[in-house]
Amino acid sequence: MTTAPYAPAPARPVDQQRVTLDADGITLSARLARPAHVPPRATVVALHGAGMSAAYFDGPAHPETSLLAVAAELGFLVVAVDRPGYGGSAKRLPHGQGVVAQAATLAAALRNLCARYDTGAGILLMGHSFGCKPALRIAADGTVPGLLGLDLSGCGDEYLASPAAPATRAGSWKLNWGPLRLYPPGTFQSSIDVVAPAPARELADAARWPAVFAALAERIRVPVRFTFAEHEAWWRRDHQALARLRGRLAAAPRVLIDHQPDAGHNISLGWAARAYHLRALGFAEECLRRRPTGTEHR
Q1: pTM for the complete prediction?
Q2: Is 25 helix (H, G, I), strand (E, B) or coil?
Q3: DSSP assignment letter at 149
Q4: Residues forming beta bridges with residue 47, ordered by sequence position
Q5: Which of 109, 203, 215, 297 is the most exposed place for a label (fewest CB within 10 A)?
Q6: Residue by residue, what is the 3-state secondary structure of 70-102?
């Protein structure tokens, strides 16, 4: 039975604000949080899934589900970006962008971020669902200096369900949410501020993802961590599928595959969010510690 977690220790002061990032002439909106009185250890850049927005990472129903709050409290600069076609770029890009174009736009936005803010020792890209796809492409292309690693949830390389939108409300609920008990009260009322129309170009790209991933995986040379929720229904996560996923990332110095209990596809909106975010930040710490030595092994 899932219950509300115990209250965490008192939060350290953080600075949280809405910002915009220039991506070679395209303006992307974002939510930024950082420690209030000390330089950041490193930076976490979070990319939301299809049909969501940057608010996904900001604890809309309960403060304990906020990635922005916990990461900034632990000394990270954290930036949740509205991907191209969402938020501040929705009017300019009404049809969105495919994975390749998104990766280029987001890489330009991250270079702007690095020019304007102290980003610490490097950047961890944290993707959810469709947001994992441009994150993986950025890593493969090597377009962001100081990339520490990738922390990915709700995404694999072999679909269990068709990437086409489910035809029924019940089908959509099972794929995206799972049991109601996994979420704080008020989650679905507050989701009005989280959900957003999914642009057509990224939906069209979704069906091609298995072939796209197979082509780019061998070019990824940073540590990668995948997390699959207990109630994940979009992706195959049996032993054979996960062995193939790991094997395709042959050039990555480290590949971790974790499983998050008591969670549905939208991990960062549920009670399990804080545990997942802390594990992701722990992975960021490991990437920081391992990066200077050059001795990391699979």
Answers
A1: 0.92
A2: coil
A3: E
A4: 81, 127
A5: 297
A6: HHHHCCCEEEEECCCCCHHHCCCCCCCCCHHHH
99: phi then psi, degrees, rounded to nearest 5: -60, -45
User: In order of start, what are the domains of the chain with their CATH numbers?
Assistant: 14-289 (3.40.50.1820)
Rounded (10°) CA dihedral 180, 83, 225, 143: 180
Name the burial class of residue 1, with classes exposed (0-12), middle (13-18) and buried (19+) by CB atoms within 10 angstroms of its CB: exposed
Q: Which two tokens stand for residue 148?
A: 């520490």
Q: Is 238 helix (H, G, I), strand (E, B) or coil?
A: coil
Which pair of structure tokens corresponds to residue 28? Answer: 């992307």
Q: At what angle do helices 99-116 and 132-141 cross, to 10 degrees?
A: 70
pLDDT averaged over 10-residue windows placed end to end, the chain, 298 residues: 53 85 98 94 97 95 95 97 98 97 98 96 97 98 95 97 69 86 91 89 92 96 98 96 97 97 96 98 95 46
| In contact, 276 and 128? CB cutoff 8 Å | no
The tokens describing 263, both together, are 């969670």
